[in-house]
Write a structure and sequence with these properties.
With about 230 residues, the chain is mainly α. The protein has ten helices and no strands.
């Protein structure tokens, strides 16, 4: 699934397909309410996980996977965080991430992946094929019973502003882009960053904490609105 992530960006004069589709989702009347419901904004407190979307805790569980103390290594908290998105890292891979050579390899790569940088502002080389982010994704994707979805969610936990959550629902909703990271970056930069600013405005209007990245706003807006029954896509 390498073609899902990296490739040459296309700077066409007309809006990109990914940009057009994202604008359609973000312009829907219910999008702010969908975001509030997903992140449990304005809902009465209750037992953890009761009647709410657990994914609302993905980015800022235990202070976030990109906080300075842990930004360049995977922790047990990261493994729990990805479970809030309905995936589980296989136990042998989880142990390797925490205590083995896989974790050491990924730490070396994470040290070279920008922190605190939005995808809209990042250089194209940060998400291009062959970049440290791409190498980290490939290394994870090739682990037994991991695959491209879990690999992407693990990296989104470590670099939430730069690397998006990406799964089969979003892939289907956005037209199966062949080079998702670079195509999303292109979409976010079109028209002087209009899409990126729209995502930040939505975050504010929905009352979401700033720990929720623009990329995560886009992901949740699509995931909540996508009409496929049971979120099943061909």
């Amino acid at each position: 699934m390498n073609e899902q992530l990296a490739g040459a960006a296309s700077f066409a004069e007309t809006p990109s397909v990914v940009g057009q589709r994202l604008h359609t989702f973000l312009d829907a009347e219910r999008v702010a309410d969908d975001l509030r419901r997903y992140f449990a904004i304005g809902l009465p407190p209750g037992p953890p996980g009761a009647g709410v979307f657990t994914g609302g805790r993905f980015e800022y569980l235990a202070g976030g996977g990109d906080r300075q103390q842990v930004a360049n290594r995977f922790t047990a908290e990261d493994l729990i965080a990805v479970q809030t998105l309905s995936v589980t890292v296989p136990a042998p891979v989880a142990l390797d991430l925490l205590e083995g050579p896989l974790g050491a390899q990924l730490s070396e790569l994470l040290r070279t992946i920008p922190t605190g940088t939005d995808l809209a502002d990042a250089d194209a080389s940060a998400v291009a094929k062959g970049s440290p982010a791409y190498q980290a994704w490939t290394l994870l994707e090739n682990q037994r019973k991991v695959g491209w979805v879990i690999a992407g969610k693990l990296l989104a936990r470590k670099r939430p502003r730069l690397l998006p959550v990406y799964d089969r629902v979003v892939r289907c909703a956005l037209g199966r882009p062949p080079s998702f990271w670079t195509e999303l970056r292109t979409a976010l930069r079109e028209d002087d960053g209009a899409l990126h600013h729209r995502l930040l405005d939505l975050r504010e209007s929905a009352g979401l904490p700033q720990t929720v990245s623009a990329l995560r706003v886009a992901d949740v807006a699509v995931w909540m609105a996508h009409p496929a029954p049971g979120h099943r896509c061909p």
